[in-house]
User: Which sequence fits this backbone?
């Protein structure tokens, strides 16, 4: 998302992938504003990203707090 063309093509050509909720939270923490959050969420949707929860209750609470 920061201009790496190799990474862009690799992600675009992958038929969906999964990340942990911890990775998601780390990515969100690195964002500068709500516009970047919106871009990240839209990108995840278009890439068919699945977020794997550690424990749904704990993960949901952690995502809300971030």
Assistant:
């Amino acid at each position: 998302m920061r201009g790496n063309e190799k990474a862009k093509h690799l992600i675009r050509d992958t038929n969906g992938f999964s990340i942990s909720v911890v990775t998601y939270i780390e990515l969100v923490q690195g964002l500068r504003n709500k516009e970047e959050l919106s871009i990240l969420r839209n990108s995840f949707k278009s890439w068919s990203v699945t977020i794997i929860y550690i424990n749904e209750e704990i993960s949901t609470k952690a995502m809300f707090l971030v």
Q: What stands out?
A: Helices lie at 5-13, 21-29, 34-46, 56-65. DSSP finds four helices and two strands in the chain. The chain has a mean pLDDT of 88.
